[in-house]
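Propose amino acids for all 78 sites.
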């Protein structure tokens, strides 16, 4: 798999964060805005358990590149 075109998913059971590496501009909005979830020094760098679903959605919606997106788990399973 191409390391520059990864797609990773991280879930807290309610919402799943989707990260597309090829789109990431490294603006660090996510890290500055919600460091409890987005921590580039941690592995994995996204901890979907670190904040509420509402906080995660609000921060993901601020991603300027579209590298971060989300879906509600019950929506995908239907």
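Proposal:
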């Amino acid at each position: 798999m191409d390391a520059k075109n990864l797609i990773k998913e991280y879930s807290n059971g309610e919402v799943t964060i989707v990260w597309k590496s090829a789109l990431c501009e490294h603006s660090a909005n996510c890290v500055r805005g919600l460091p409890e979830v987005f921590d580039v020094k941690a592995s994995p760098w996204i901890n979907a358990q670190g904040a509420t679903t509402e906080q995660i959605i609000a921060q993901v919606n601020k991603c300027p590149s579209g590298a971060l997106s989300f879906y509600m788990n019950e929506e995908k399973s239907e």
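The radius of gyration is 12 Å. The chain has one domain: 12-77.
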